[in-house]
Amino acid sequence: MSALARAAAEGTVLAPTGSSLVLALVVGVLFATGTYLLLQRPLTRVLIGLALLTHAANLLLLVAGGLSGAAPFIGDDGSVPERMADPLPQAMALTAIVISFAVSALLLAVAYRSYALTRDDVVQDDPEDSRIAHHVEEGPS
């Protein structure tokens, strides 16, 4: 008998709740929307897309953390360690929040500087990329 089947028979593994499914769907929607916005030309949409992606990653870490409500340490109350929340995903989420804040601040500064120079937040095509694409369309000479 596998360890998972044995734990399920003993009642130490809980089935996923409806809220976990809803949070998983929210994570999927946030990832999809963030990716879509990240691929757009305006820098404001890129910034919002990056923020949505980081929020989705943080939410995914918290959902992966497992159950909550009880203290994450083993005490004398007879708690089963398998039913306790894992504190590592929460620590990783806090670290990810700090890193995403720094990256968002840097991207906001770059977007502001780009807007100050060009008075437009749309990213233009690189002339070298356009030349290479035109060369590929014509075929080798």
TrEMBL record:
- Keywords for the protein's UniProt record, in alphabetical order: Cell membrane, Membrane, Transmembrane, Transmembrane helix
Give one Pfam family: Oxidored_q2
Where it sits in the cell: the answer is:
Cell membrane
Enumerate the transmembrane spans: 20-39, 46-71, 91-112
| InterPro entries listed in its UniProt record | CPA3_antiporter_subunitC, NUOK/Mnh_C1-like
Membrane topology term reads: Multi-pass membrane protein
Alphabetical list of NCBIfam families matching this protein: PRK07946.1
Q: What is this protein called?
A: Multicomponent Na+:H+ antiporter subunit C
Classification from the root reads: Bacteria, Bacillati, Actinomycetota, Actinomycetes, Kineosporiales
